[in-house]
Amino acid sequence: MKKRILCTLLCLTMVAGLLTGCSTSKKEDTKGAATAAAATTEKTEGDVTLTWAVFETDNYTAALWQSIIDAFEKDNPGIKIEKVLMTGDSRSQFLKTMLAANNMPDINIDPVDLATTDGVYAEVPAELLAKFEDSAVVSFSGKNTLVPAYKALRNQCYYHKDQFAAAGITAEPKTWDEFIAACDKLKAAGYTPLMGAGAADIWATSFGWWTGVTNSEIMSVYPNFNKDILDGTLKWTDKVIADNLKTWQSLVDAGYYHKGSMSFSYTQAAEEFHNGSSAMFMDGAWAAKTYDTNGVTTKDLGVFVVPTPSGAYSYCTMPQYWGVSETCKNKEAAFKFCEYVLGGNKDIYLKYLQADGCYSVTKEPVSYDMGEIQTEFVDNYKDCTLVPEIMKVVGDTKVPSGFEDFTCKSLQNIFTGANVDTELATWDAEFARLTAN
Amino acid sequence: MKKRSVFFFIPALLIYTILLIIPIFGAFYLSTTNWNGISATYSFVGLKNYISMLSDARLGNAIMVTFKITGIVCITVNVLGLFLAICLNKSGKMIAAVRSIFFMPYVLSTVAISFIWLSILSYTGVLNGVLEAVGLGSLTADYIGNTKNAILSICVVEIWRTLGFYIVIYLASIQTVPVELYESCKIDGGNSWQQFRYVTIPMIIPGITIAAIMSIMTEMRQYDIVRVLTNGGPGYSTETITYNIVTQAFGNNMLGYSSAVAVFLFVIIAAVAIIQLKIANRLEA
Amino acid sequence: MSKIENRSGKVIRGGITIFVLIITLLMTIPLYITVVNIFKPTDLISASPLTLPSPPILDNIKTVLSDPNVSLSKMYFNSICITFFGTSICILVSSMAGYYLARTTSKFSKKLYVYFLFGLMVPYVIVYVPLISMYKNFGIIGNLPGLIIVFVSGSISFSVFMYQGFIKSIPIEVEEAALIDGANQFTIYFNIVLPLVKSCTTSVAIFIGLSMWNDFLTPLLIGQVPTITVGIYTAIGSFSADWGTVFAYVLFATAPIVIVYILAQKQFVKGLTAGAIKG
Asked: ipTM of this predicted complex?
């Protein structure tokens, strides 16, 4: 009897919570219906409503998006922005299902995967494109369908200064031999040199190595790699790539990586590193921003560019874009929104860039104050050459959709000991299969 | 007796046909095209998708993985389920409580279960933590990131989730066996093992069949746990057929091809079900 | 001879009891871990996962409730809507169809029954892509009502199977008596038959309701609607290291089901296994 009363009470409270949630979500639902109606008729009381697909993380919070929307709506009465949260963990998968279902949001963040197909995104007006750096503007089959949003720096090696000192390492490794020597010293002193990641985060296993070291090595030998691989001049089984990956495997075989690496999700690995489970972690630029926000100083944490076995010294940036869907009923308003957030309103653009630690691509650069670690991160690239990132190139020389995920999985295989040459042969096969489609 | 009006079944028929049967035919049709899901045009390629399936190593791997998982889970769950059903075939509050504990994982959402097990199987998770605490630190291992262990981890989670369900099915089956048969077996001098072998097993063959069919069909469609626990990894070592289909469709933009794989899975499951039913019919006779 | 048997019998029985106890313990541990660790701070969870929290803290639950990126009420609303309406509609149409199939003994009716059963063998993943591409212009993809109807279509096979079998076992005399009294078919159905199949309705409702609530892929791909399962998957995504929050999310995802399960255990077990036992 008591059990029943307790459970009934719990259910009643749940229902009460639901009803309050009900009223707010009902409003959102009706607003959604109104949006759909507005988008299809375009003949409302002068109000245009656009849908904006976003994703939310620790850095990109709902509050951030809302502040952007509020600022824009205040300065542009008559245009309303409706936020659509991308569900699941794959943004391109979400957009593809929306597109297939004729429900494509008007403005998309991270549209690169779908932009390769003609007719998905609308061409960007030339006046808007003129506001961005020429290098950031891309075209697909001659059409400029994406609005440059920002560029993100990629990765370096973060390390715990106390562990380095305890192992007797006095300077940041500048050459490959110094790097190996540092790993050995750490191991001798009882520390784990490197942290890896895996589990459900496929991209994380290879991220630090592939993006930092392999990409630099390939680019230093084959500056037009993307074009060459697409027209068949080069193959993935190339000696440069194979040797580089074999070197990576040798790091694993030497026991430099933390034993639990593959079972950690990216967040777990970062957390473990932060707690000192390993001395070094090849992590992305966003981590610098997070460390700064959390009060970590350069006294405890250092960062350096990972030296490559061949001595190539370069870095890459990942460009990011916004796209306006071809199915948008009011493209003028949509591009107005893009222009406003991506540079038009300097404060809002600043907020957007600062959130994830990215950098502006507008002709007039917008910069913000960075914390210690992020400043050091950026400074490290002072003498470095900028090269394209093979897997993230946008435009006609883009690798086919799904290939990057394929390589990430294959690199996981390599990390766990698969034969490098056999694996790379599967890259060639898959590449051919996907490009033929 | 007046004939029943057709309006009784028309609503169900409409919904079922429009939203299930017609899309299945649509999948058959799609499997003969090379549509990529985004562009408006695609072309008919006949059986090309099916032929390329034969040489697709990744699909072959997915099939092996699915069969491995199905094999391990189904055998364990049925054998252990039957054994535990016999042990728990008594009355009493304790037994009832134990039965409800066994059954609870089955009602929980697979996504939630996967997150729980992630915390247990992670390298710095509960299992390794307990091993170290009791001094067995040398036995700690990587259960998710190690190619060989990852499949076993998925099997363990599935067994944990479904064991209670099959215990209940076997319990119900066992309870249909008339007590007199056991009595007459005892009179003939049979011990517990012989009772089990000559009375219980033949009488519960329908139950065994159903449990076997259900467990096979459920495991062949395994997706959720793989997606959350290992995301098909490390590499491809835990990629199941359904995972392959979803990734090909929405990741690789190869909708025609993924439909072909889906048709293939459908054919396999149907074949398995039909074969099992035939075997069961023969055994029952 | 019997003495030896008795002794070895006792040993075996003792061994079996220990074995069952061990397995029960193993089965309970994951549930225990979840419940206990919600009330502990994350670092304590990694350090000593099996101990009871002292003192128990509510921080993890507060984090989930106050997370601005996550709207639990919306997710619950979606899930409850789907489950409630989906189950109701499916029961309505399936019971009617089952009634027809049980009471009509024509060749057509037999063929129709097999046709409905066909869906039991289908792996639902085959349907996602064609469903989206064929019906995108009909307005059922990407919204709640459409998702509900899609769920209904997936559950009809099982429901029809259950109702047909159950109604067949109900004596037909009651209906014939009502017919003589001049009632028409539909009144007979709604006023007489439906109340008689209440236990079957409960079983079916629990089975299909549970599968609708727990389904992950369908709302993700077809509805693009954040139900509770999709919602926590998206929410936890990047926070997988913070075990305390993860467990709190898991709690919110599973608590409603667990509550109903504890309240209605017998019906739950009966409902979920009825299909298998009948077959």
From this structure: 0.83
